[in-house]
Structures are given as C-alpha cells and as structure tokens.
Write a structure and sequence with these properties.
- The chain has 442 residues and is an alpha+beta fold.
- The protein folds into two domains: 27-135, 3-layer Sandwich (Rieske Iron-sulfur Protein), CATH 2.102.10; 149-430, Naphthalene 1,2-dioxygenase Alpha Subunit, Chain A, domain 1, CATH 3.90.380.
- Helices cover 16% and strands 22% of the residues.
- The protein is globular.
Length: 442
C-alpha cells in the first residue's frame, strides 16, 4: 500500500507537482480529430493536467491549444472568433495564432508595437491519424511521438470518454488482469465454455501467478495459470510510461491496440482507446476467446458547458450505471451492470474521486499495481532531484509492442520466450510455433 505522502505524489497532477512535472515530459493524447472537424470552427474547451485550455483548428487546418484566459484581461478565449488563421478574443479584439503569438491588437494605436511583446500560453500539437497529441513540457523542441503501432495507420478507430475519478484509479484497473474472471465474467462457468479456449483457462483457474520485468519504457507483465496437461496459459501485457496500457485481450502477436488514461485534473480523467482500421484480435484459427471485449456500450449524454461537460457516458453514478438487480440475483450477470467498460467505470468511480491508497490491503494478484506505483514515484523523484529524463521520453521505438494471450509448454518463461510476438509488425510466421502455440481443441 502507499503512504499518505506517496498517495499524494501519484495522484496530484497540477503544475508544480511531482507527478504533474513527470506527465509534462511526454506527449499527451488531447483530442479526437472529430472534436475539431472543420477549419475556423467552434473552439473547444478542454482541461489537461489541471490547466484549462482552448483548442481550435485554424484556417490552414493547424490545431492550436491556448490557455483559456486571454493574456490581456483574462476573458475566456472559448468565446473567441476563430478567423483568418487565429483566435480573436471578443473582449478587445486581440488575436493569437496557434503558437500563441499576438498577431493583431486593434484596440492599440497603429504605431504601437505592444502586440509584439505579448504572448499567450500555447502548447504545440501534432495530429497523427486518429489522435491529436499535445506537448505541455519544458523543451523548446519536443521529444518524438511514441511509436504506437495503432496510431501509425490512417483510418484507425478511436474512442474517448470521461471518468469521475483520478487518473491512477482509472488506470490501475487496466493493469489488473485477474479481475476479468470476476467483474466481467463472474457469472460464467468454465464448464459451459469450449475446452481449450483462452476464456476457458481464465475461468477454470480464476487465480494467476505473476512475472514482471521492467523495460526501457515501463514494464511487461505476464499472468499465468495451468492450461491443459503440460501447458500453461499466459496473458502478457505492457505498462508504458506515463499512462498507457496494452491489455492482454486477444491472441499475442495479433492484437494491436492502446489504452491511455489522461489526467484531466486530480479528480477526473479521460480514457482514450485507439487501434488500427481493423482490429487484429483473432489468431487466424477461430480460437480467440469468445468472451473477450463483449458487451461494450459507449452511449453518451448530451454535451453540457465546460471542460467536464463532454464525453460522459449514459450509464453513470447518477443512475447506478443502470444496474439490474434481478439480473445479478439470477446470475445472468455477476454485477447486474450492462457493458464491460461500464462495469470497470462503476467500480473505479465507486472508490470516490481520490481513494486513499494507504487503506488498501494488497495481495499477490496486485503485483503489477505495486510495480506501477514504484516506477512512477521513482521516475518523478529522479526528475525532480537529478533532472533524470523519465523512461520512454526519448525512446519512441520502445512503444512498438503487442499484447495478448498464448499457451506455452510448462516451464517456458512466457515473457522472454514470446519477445518476437510482443514486437509490433511482426507476424506469427516469424515466430517458432513449436515453442509457443495455442492448444488444439479436444
């Protein structure tokens, strides 16, 4: 468990905090391109790392991200006129380009050069396929974007929604692979599934043992349990600094996808998921788990004002996430809550917006949660005390990974043995299937 002081370190993300300074070293998923669908369109209020910002797409299609308050008198640039390659404050007409430079100051005399001395807070943005990334860090020349395979192909799919809890609370669930057999599939019996499938192994033994290895960009972990005689089922996944996860849904070597839990502020977070145009979750043999990814429901409430008024799911704390008590009591659903994403959301939000981790009692199945917190705290302290660049900032190639499940012979160490399958854009034929293979049916 964390001490009260450590709990503060890993949760607080505002300017000047240890974790906030760490987060600002990285490119952050900030928006979906669909949020800024047209040039000179409506500005969008967002909040990142506790800062209120205004995003807009200028006349040339470039994305700007400025501080909410105009540097003149503090009026919100959300009301600004997006016109002729800049955002113009409606209070006195000051106009700023995507770099924050004041390009027009019509309330000053023609001979005034005051506009050349004024600069709005602006953060550089890069739009790559289905994600608009923002850099809020100190470098004049930002580091490279992480080489996420899922973000390198045009036309990829992406989703985003808001959670009413700290980023850490939300994120830790994505590194907790054992909860799948309870929260999502607790009402399913192993004997009702096809023997030899990955879901069968997950439910036949709802516990797992763990192996974890640090990497240059975070940590790789494997949860393993018995499969058929002489074999072991491994679920191999990745934590990637500072808040990215590749979960072990699907078959290792085929699944391409990333989850990013981006801190809005201390008490709210955005969950981004992005993948390629066609999710490669199968293994070509029809053996992918029948339960994996089932029951998603991403219906949204109508937008309301402000940076917290968008991307809120219909199922929420206000309606008990549409909990069906009769379905729960009849074991038609372990939770009674429809939708796996909503089940996750319900439990992490039920802890409160910031849960005090000093009250926890962590067991063997929480090994990856413990490692995550240690890695984050150490990286944040090393940055503050010694100026050490955090893991992954200058290592874009370290993010070229895949995750998933696989069955191996007993005694094979799953993480090391499957390194080729964990590498982005390496296909199954590049790996020795005599060493690692899905168990045949029957």
């Amino acid at each position: 468990m964390l001490s009260d002081h450590e709990n503060e370190i890993v949760v607080r993300v505002g300017p000047g905090t240890l974790m906030g300074d760490l987060m600002r070293q990285y490119w952050l998923p900030a928006l979906l391109p669909s949020e800024l669908p047209e040039t000179d369109g409506r500005p969008v209020p967002i909040r990142l790392l506790g800062e209120d910002l205004i995003a807009f797409r200028d006349s040339e299609g470039r994305v700007g991200l400025l501080a909410n308050n105009c540097p003149h008198r503090g009026a919100s640039l959300f009301f600004g006129r997006n016109e002729e390659s800049g955002l113009r404050c409606v209070y006195h007409g000051w106009k700023f380009d995507v770099g924050g430079r004041c390009v027009d100051m019509p309330n000053e005399p023609p001979e005034s050069n005051f506009k050349d001395k004024v600069h709005a807070v602006a953060y550089p943005c890069i739009e790559r396929n289905q994600i608009i990334w923002a850099y809020m860090g100190p470098r004049e020349s930002p580091p490279p974007l992480p080489d996420f395979e899922a973000n390198l192909e045009p036309g990829g799919n992406s989703h985003k929604y808001l959670r009413d809890c700290s980023w850490l609370q939300s994120f830790e669930g994505d590194l907790d692979t054992v909860h799948l057999a309870f929260l999502h599939h607790g009402s399913v019996r192993a004997e009702d599934l096809e023997p030899g499938t990955m879901d069968y192994y997950s439910l036949k033994n709802r516990w797992a043992r763990w192996a974890i290895k640090d990497t240059e960009v975070g940590a790789t972990y494997g949860a393993y349990r018995p499969a058929e005689e002489g074999t072991t089922y491994w679920r191999i996944a990745h934590y990637l600094f500072p808040f990215h996860a590749m979960i072990p849904t699907g078959v290792l070597g085929k699944r391409v996808g990333v989850i990013s839990i981006v801190p809005i502020d201390d008490e709210h977070s955005f969950r981004f998921t992005f993948g390629p145009p066609q999710e490669r979750s199968g293994n070509g043999t029809g053996r992918a788990g029948a339960l994996s990814g089932a029951g998603q429901d991403l219906g949204f409430q109508p937008d309301t004002a402000g940076p917290l008024g968008r991307f809120r799911l219909n199922q929420s704390r206000s309606n008990d996430y549409m909990l069906d008590w009769e379905a729960q009591m009849a074991m038609k659903s372990y939770t009674g809550i429809p939708g796996t994403s909503i089940q996750d959301q319900a439990v992490v939000e039920s802890m409160g917006q910031i849960y005090n981790r000093s009250h926890e009692h962590l067991g063997t199945s929480d090994m990856m949660i413990i490692r995550l917190r240690r890695l984050l705290i150490q990286a944040a302290r090393d940055l503050r005390e010694d100026g050490t660049v955090p893991p992954g900032v200058d290592c874009p190639e370290g993010y070229r990974r895949r995750s998933g499940g696989i069955v191996l012979e007993d005694g094979v160490e799953g993480i090391d043995a499957t390194m080729p399958l964990q590498t982005a854009r390496v296909e199954l034929e590049d790996f020795d299937l005599a060493v690692a293979t899905t168990t045949p049916a029957g």
